Amino acid sequence: MTSTAIEAQGRFNLKKSRSVRFMLFGVAGVMLLAVTQTFAKTPTSDITSSGTWSIAVAWSIPILMAGLGGIFSERAGVVNIGLEGMMIVGTWAGAVGTILVDPWFGLVLAAAAGSIGGLIMAVATVSFQVDHIIAGVAINVLAVGTRYGSDLFFPKYGGSITQSPTLTAPATFDIPLLGPMFRAIEDKAWFLVSDVAGILGGFFIHTTWFTLALIALVPFSTWVLWRTAFGLRLRSAGEHPIAADSLGVSVYKYKYYGVVISGALAGVGGGFLSVVLTGIYKEGQTVGKGFIGIATMLFGNYHPVGTAGGALLFGFAETLRLRDPAAPHGLILGIAIVLGLALLYYLIKRNWKRVTVVGLVFALMAWTYATTTSVIPEIPKITPHIAVLVVLLFFSARLRPPAADGIPYRRGDH
Amino acid sequence: MLTRIKYTLAAPGIALLAAVLFSSVILLATGVSPIEAFLNMAEYGSRGVTLVAVVNRSIPFFLSGIAVAIGFKMNLFNIGVEGQYIFAAIVAAKVGSSVDLPAPLQITLILATAMTVGALWSGLAGVMKTSRGVHEVISTIMLNAIAVAGATAFLLRRWSVQGDGQSLETKLPEIAESGWFPVLFTVDNGRVGLSSFIFVAIAVGVVFHLFIGRTRWGYDLRATGISATSAESSGVNPKRTVILAMVLSGAVAGLIGMTELLTFEHNYNLRFIQGMGFTGIAVALLGRNNLVGIAVSAFVFAWLDVASGVLEVRGDAPRAVVGLMTGVVILAAVISYAVIERKRADEELRTASDAIKEVAT
Hints:
By secondary structure, chain A is mostly helical. Chain A contains 18 helices and no strands. The A-B interface holds A 81, 120, 123-124, 128-131, 133-135, 137-139, 141-145, 147-148, 150-152, 161, 287-288, 291, 294-295, 298, 376, 378-379, 381-382, 385-386, 388-389, 392-394, 396-397, 399 and B 26, 30, 77, 79, 128, 132-135, 137-139, 141-143, 145-146, 149-151, 153-154, 278, 281-282, 285, 318, 320-321, 323-324, 326-328, 330-331, 334-335, 338-339, 342.
């Protein structure tokens, strides 16, 4: 078999497994939402509306950026727990840049600030071979020091020690043709079709140039990592640094690239959060989005496309907190349906251990749904975090991390 | 012996020096005199009343450091100490205010409740790791958010009383007096007193030291930390060790909030002290996971925390500079530990090869 034939076959298999699986996941997800929407006992028009999904898309961007950052870093072999800290610095720098010049400058400054965080991380982990998790934790502690910068800067512009003044928000617009088209279909209220249109419409209405540019980073990162020499070298540093070194790849340099790019992405994500999404910098406003980004990276098995899917899921969970308070209650029905199907599956498979566990949770969910009409107000706040745990419980066992991920590499030690 | 002391003290020394230098540069760059700021802190920080407050603050820092160190000993990262102690504190406050037993029973009940809640919450992360391979860093961070923004917020709303109608403050009822830890002595006309909870902290420290150094389980923990594979092949059950470490870490974490709860506040309220868990990570890292190191670094961080209070009052150096210093201390400490560790290994290698050469000739 020639090398091109092997490559072609590999590509075919990859496409088959990944794309088909994602499409199946997607279709199942939309059906579930549509069913929930239609049959929920408290009326929720919001679960599949384009309005909700445009917010979900926007709120998924910071998480997506952290996830992409995680991919660049971990593909180069550095576990980056410091993403949260780099994102925090990004939220701050984004606000500063917006106040000084405009939102564009804010996001550039956010990326620069994040990449400085990445650089510090790289110095510690690559040059000094500090344990990656410890270094990441240290970066997160260091990021708390941004309060010093806030204290000096924001009060002069009408803010306070913990928050900036309101920032000038960038303009939002609907994409011509596609936006109105999906809206029209959505308004017909056809079961499933309108729901799909609502979700897709979310990508095309109330968007900003920033949103579109950052979404474009998903295919771009995929291309860089899998179709360029740079990407191959970067990944080789994370898979087998000794072999890469022996072939003349400067492993240290590519690890530096990976971690610094990772910091820049997390920083942009933070800047997007403060400048575009909320229009204000507030201390602690990331509430763990950097870590949630790491979870989406695991959900996507270190690949940008799957990571984007995961980010959208978390963006949606975030949206429920911001929109209709009845929607989370409807989702209990959705979860109960999923669990019911899983229960059926395990019954057929006669996996009694799983039947017990799933059955218990199913009963709990069904009972909760039947006896209540709303969820306690704390639940929407922690939905993303619970979702992370659920995702990890299901996906951790199937991960295929880069072979040398998280192992400090010292040249000449082997 | 002398070289050992040199190596032990070098890293924290470098770290503190780096932090002082870095924050001086930052202060200078923003037009504040660092010398004045540090002199202010030194003067205020050496008063008796401040030192008592520092020791009080060191107690939770120390316990938090111990809780984190138990995990670190076997390369297990319990980042969830924060959520564990806050969750434990509110449940313990509820139990303590619901019953009124004789003092020994009351105290035992409250402390046991706190330790159990902490242990269960961290044990959850342990079970997720051993049964489904979920990395403890992410699971404990998520459990932090679920404990603080979810469970504790919900319970505070559910259990709170509106007091005598005068204050609108959301708080739990007061704990029965038999469960209080009194102050040992007071300074400055009774304004500040030393919490007797310090004895519990000392006991926990001693038990930690003996457990890690003198018991089989402690040995298993350390062996797993040094080499998981060789520990496993020598008969250590890795799953059980992970859960054991998480549960013990969470149990100690449960005690962190008790100084505040049982000596000073006597009830759980909205102002309940936060952030102790994250500082514990810093304390354990700087203290190199051993008893004396943790005690000293708990004191250092507590001193920075308390003494920096003067910066707001006197001079124009923002207090937030201490947050920056903490970050630099940690970063500089972990880097210099890594460098020194490598240097020491190289030196050992050199000594050994010299000795072999000598024997050979």
